[in-house]
DNA sequence: CTTGTCATTTACAACGTTGTAAAGTAAACG
DNA sequence: CGTTTACTTTACAACGTTGTAAATGACAAG
């Protein structure tokens, strides 16, 4: 039904291989031939069949982005950034959501759909260091997020510990001394939660402020409602506090809402800072201070690394760990 | 490199076609043969090559979702709903963003990537009724959004006019009489903006409230910042008002922020209602009343329609226009 | 024991593309 | 003018799968 190389070749009066050569920028083609072919292509509106190309060449021009959940603004914005970066390199992106835990993640990773793509950007949620060996070693892959380190794959992340430290220092610099941390995963060391908690502790240590476990508020999922629920529980305990470092913006927004319902004024009574710099933080009431992880940089770096792996499938260059820069963004929630 | 039908066939001691038959649930296969083949498949960890399957059968199991912008919470949530619906039917989704206007939309629609997919869900932004003929007639496609009606393709949308009417009626029922409308596109009739404005007018008419053009606030893009900017301009004009129907939630949130900065109390001074029921509306301060367009229903309906078109490529059943139910969600921004 | 029927399995071609290697052509050299 | 050299184009096979049609097997009826 659709136009194929054969149709173009017939119209241009050359072989299909010559048409293919024109399309793939093979250098030795007579200018007259090239012109003929090109005008035949545009006359017929030829579009290469990507399935055939992919079957023959092993390259589809599609990469997968595996993320937990698009409803989470951070991942939506990250996905946006990845798609822009990919588009700039001529790649399409298949997004797969995996909100279902370890079993589902492995299923998707091993499923037939991964055959279709040239490489995978995998924002690890459930898998841990101990599952690293489950990752297909032949598939080009770049890991995002912070669950697997020094694994078998390239890895791009923000500086979690340094970022959380800077966030905490920011509140300390405002004179806050009873700073709560929202979003811990008890017992976790390597994930974002563990690393950010570590940064929080480092900042307290260096400032000579004692670490008080009762100020650490656990929250497993990091959505608005989880932040709200956790803050509700925390307020019931009546632990006095004057600052809040939330491990992401969504939780911070949920928590701010609950705090204000409870009559706490932000930033007068409690200074708040989040993590991720999602767009919403600019318009919340009050606007939310945050750590900007430069999602664009993460996305571009990850796509570049992935493309490098795709282009050199034989290379056994060791896996690289890259950490991007971050920036403290002060808004009303931590105004002086 | 990867396992193919040949490998499975060799191990099971049958022909590749028999393996193919087993995989595709061909009925006439001896149970013993089926067992042999199945155990060979799982022993080798065979995964079908989707490129080859797609090349041969013309089906890839992938659909495209064309949306303006993932940073817009509505589209992120819609994309999420579409992906869930698609996953339930065994389909993958390629998301393409097209923030660039008509030219870019047509480029993407006609680009080679559309060859890879079985069908397209197209959330029309820039194209209008007059461009309907540009849509490839052979490609299964379902239109979302409200720019093209009675076009050549199936169409799923919410009841824009009825929804806006209900929103306006809701504010009227609270005794509001000077209700502003935020997000109009001057001159537009068919898009969401035009239809929602129409609903707003109908509600006023029926309530016997005069339509006052100075209460209609234009905003071309519908992001938070556009709502904020438009409201800032509107406040400068000093037009008195006591209610606000925003044509989407993001604008409403941006506008609420500006109103509160200006000292207006919500809902005491101004009752506000938005459109879309994005998650954020539950946690904003105040929480935002809105029209819930049932994104899940839109997504499921659209995927079902698309799948029907994909399965019956020859059918020339006429294009259908479906409108989903909506629901008025009252929250604090329009509390009594 | 032959024939017919149905179940089961197979060989082969085809989908549209690109890699390989070879064929053809023109220009340059001795 | 024959030969080398470089450029340009081509035929053919292959990627892994499924559709078509034909071959084989099994079994009941005549």
Overview in brief:
The structure is a homodimer. With about 325 residues, the first copy, chain A, is of the alpha/beta class.
Tally of strands of chain A: 12
Structural class of chain A: alpha/beta
CATH homologous superfamily of the largest domain in chain A - what is it?
Response regulator
The chain pair forming the largest interface, with residue counts per chain, is:
A-B, 54 and 55 residues
Q: Averaged pLDDT of chain A, please?
A: 91
Note poorly predicted spans of chain A.
Answer: none
What is the chains' assembly state? Answer: homodimer
Please report which band the strand proportion of chain A falls in: under 5%, 5-15%, 15-25%, 25-35%, 35-45% or over 45%: 15-25%
Global shape of chain A: elongated
The count of domains of chain A is 3
| Range of helix content of chain A | 40-55%
Gyration radius of chain A, in Å:
25 Å
Distance between the termini of chain A: 67 Å
> Which CATH class of the largest domain in chain A applies here?
Alpha Beta
Indicate the topology.
Two copies of one chain form a homodimer.
Chain A lengths: L4 H8 L3 H8 L7 H14 L5 H8 L4 E6 L5 H16 L3 E6 L4 H9 L8 E5 L17 E4 L9 E5 L1 H14 L5 E6 L7 H16 L8 E3 L5 H14 L5 E4 L2 H13 L9 E3 L16 E3 L2 H17 L9 E4 L2 E3 L7
Parallel strand pairs in A: 1-2, 1-3, 3-4, 4-5, 5-11, 6-7, 6-8, 8-9
Antiparallel strand pairs in A: 10-12
Chain B binds a DNA duplex (30 and 30 nucleotides) through α2 and α4.
